[in-house]
Amino acid sequence: MSKLAQYDQQANAFYMHLSSRKAWETLEINQHINIDLDKQGRIAGVELLNVRQFIQQIFGSAPTAEKLKSLKVEVCTETGGEVVLRMNYIHEHVLYAIPKAYTSPLVSGA
């Protein structure tokens, strides 16, 4: 399955499907990030809430609805299973480490 991104302007939310696996559990990481896990604890998707404010904090400029459609989110892991989001927006990218609320050696792609 290709990664499918959805931006909901009315809800001010962004969702990136990372696999075809169904979400079994949702972890609220902070006020802006929820991570959906499948039954085996692997990341199935990432939701960004209050996405316009979050992107402005991360990238330093207020995004337009049209520009938010270009946002891409990937999940990376570092040594020890720490989860890092790589966010690509326009021509910039940022690595955003998820607080220790979620670490897993089971993180994998599709």
Strand arrangement in the largest pleated sheet: 1-2-5-4-3
Count of distinct structural domains: 1
User: What Rg is obtained from the alpha carbons, in whole angstroms?
Assistant: 13 Å
Query: What share of the residues does DSSP label as strand, in percent?
Result: 35-45%
> What's the overall average pLDDT, rounded?
80
The portion of residues assigned to helices is: 10-25%
DSSP strand tally: 8
Largest sheet: 5 strands, antiparallel
Tally of contiguous helical segments: 2
Give the H and E element order: EEEEEHHEEE
Shape: globular
Give the terminus-to-terminus CA distance: 7 Å
Structural class: mainly beta
Low-confidence stretches: 105-110
Strand-helix topology:
Layout: E1 4-8, E2 13-17, E3 25-28, E4 33-37, E5 43-49, H1 51-59, H2 65-68, E6 72-77, E7 83-89, E8 92-97
Antiparallel strand pairs: 1-2, 2-5, 3-4, 4-5, 6-7, 7-8
Quick recap of the structure?
It contains two helices and eight strands; from the N terminus they run βββββααβββ.
Summarize the structure in words.
With 110 residues, the chain is mostly beta strands. The protein has one domain. It has helices at 51-59, 65-68; strands at residues 4-8, 13-17, 25-28, 33-37, 43-49, 72-77, 83-89, 92-97. Strand 6 (72-77) and strand 7 form a beta hairpin. The protein is globular and about 35 Å long.
